[in-house]
Amino acid sequence: MRLQGKAWKFGDNISTDHIAPGRLFHLRSNLPELAKHVLEDADPEFASKVQPGDFVVAGNNFGLGSSREHAPTIIKMAGVSAVLAKSFARIFFRNAINVGLPVLICDTDKISAGDELEVDLSSGKIYNKTQDIVLQAPPLPDVMIRLLADGGLAAHVAKHGDLKID
Length: 166
Hints:
The protein is α/β, with parallel strands linked by helices. It contains 7 helices and 7 strands, in the order E-H-H-H-E-H-E-H-E-E-E-E-H-H. Helix content is 28%, strand content 19%. Strand 2, helix 4 (70-77) and strand 3 (82-85) form a beta-alpha-beta unit. Helix 4 (70-77) crosses helix 5. The chain starts with a strand and ends in a 6-residue tail after the last helix. The model has no long low-confidence stretch (mean pLDDT 93).
């Protein structure tokens, strides 16, 4: 599974409040409207300028905070193809896979805002076309690739009638 897009760079400790602002909690039942505000507390221009296929690139501890499944959901709804970070909060990582948003752990120091990236989820290779370098992330396990290809855990179960992981 190969993905291509532009990098949007964020720092460390981007919380679920940065992703889905708490003041907009009343929109949690209207995810398309909430997605119009994704990450606006970290970058006020992100939601209006992100393009389908782009990547969120961050530092350590991305997605910390409360277990809001709508945080990775609205990132995906905004058109982001994957999130690359040095580390993730465990619950965010699992929620992202469950909703069909690829997440890769890698050294993001050599990725700058606006860099054009190509990511191969199966191999974990991240091609920074702008800087002409290749970064390596641990490849996602086959079961995660299958879940992502089906659109997430619920879509996978709906498609197969069960969690088919063999």
